[in-house]
Task: inverse folding
């Protein structure tokens, strides 16, 4: 097996793992009971899934033009996912649409 064949094999493994993580994130969004739990599934496995898919694409395409675009998409995904989770959490907290008993510590509660 040559280097290109090995890169294609790794690319297919990354694409498959990324797709499975993205599906798991989607199932978690549908199955978890409240918005704070869903917020976790939106960010963690989904971001790792997208990064694995992008790594698989980079291993498969191997063009400098494509690699630059893939890098930009990956950086944008990593930069925006935590901000999105923070905004979702803040909106849920301010609207009061969560069970306060689920929180270990409520640092934003009025004393």
Result:
């Amino acid at each position: 097996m040559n280097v290109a064949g090995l890169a294609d094999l790794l690319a297919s493994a990354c694409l498959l793992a990324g797709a499975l993580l993205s599906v798991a994130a989607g199932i978690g969004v549908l199955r978890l009971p409240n918005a704070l739990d869903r917020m976790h599934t939106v960010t963690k496995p989904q971001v790792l899934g997208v990064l694995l898919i992008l790594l698989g694409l980079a291993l498969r395409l191997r063009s400098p033009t494509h690699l630059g675009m893939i890098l930009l998409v990956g950086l944008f995904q990593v930069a925006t996912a935590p901000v999105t989770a923070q905004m979702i959490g803040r909106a849920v907290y301010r609207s009061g649409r969560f069970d306060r008993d689920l929180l270990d510590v409520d640092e934003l509660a009025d004393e």
Observations:
- Helices lie at 3-31, 35-61, 64-95.
